[in-house]
Amino acid sequence: MKIALGSDHGGFDLKNAIVAHLKQKGYDTLDCGTYDTNSCDYPDFAVPVCDAVVSGTADFGVLICGTGIGMSLTANKINGIRCALVSDVFSAKATREHNDANVMALGARVIGDCLAIALVDAFLETKFSNGARHIKRIEKIMNLEKR
Q1: Under CATH, which architecture does the 2-146 domain have?
Q2: 5 and 49 in contact (C-beta within 8 Å)?
Q3: Could you state, in order of their start, the residue ranges of all structural domains in the chain?
Q4: Most CB atoms within 10 A, among 47, 75, 77, 126?
Q5: Mind telling me the catalytic residues?
Q6: Residue 84 binned pLDDT confidence (cut-offs 50, 70, 90)
Q7: 0.70 cut: is pTM over it?
């Protein structure tokens, strides 16, 4: 499984910790930047991560900025992306089970490294339920892109 990751300067250190963790667990990673702590704009790194997921180059995406809010807002503007900002394990699992989310956003200034890694693991290890009611709701969400 390949995971695309992107961060702005506020999420740089956490992104690197997550990349190291994912590699240790045997995941392939695609680091879409940023590559230092110089001030930068989060949309510039959310877009390539989401493009990788939509194109199939990556199976899932992880986006990190200071709060995770800007990254999640940006990601959800891209057709085919269902991004959830998560800060607890229950939500990380539920968004996969119920929403079939393909990207997660994290706030580096909101959560610590250990929790972030637990959230990434929960997200990646949880399968979509394929429940009829969830499929119907996801179709309604995705149809909004056609408006």
Answers
A1: 3-Layer(aba) Sandwich (3.40)
A2: yes
A3: 2-146
A4: 75
A5: 65, 98
A6: very high
A7: yes
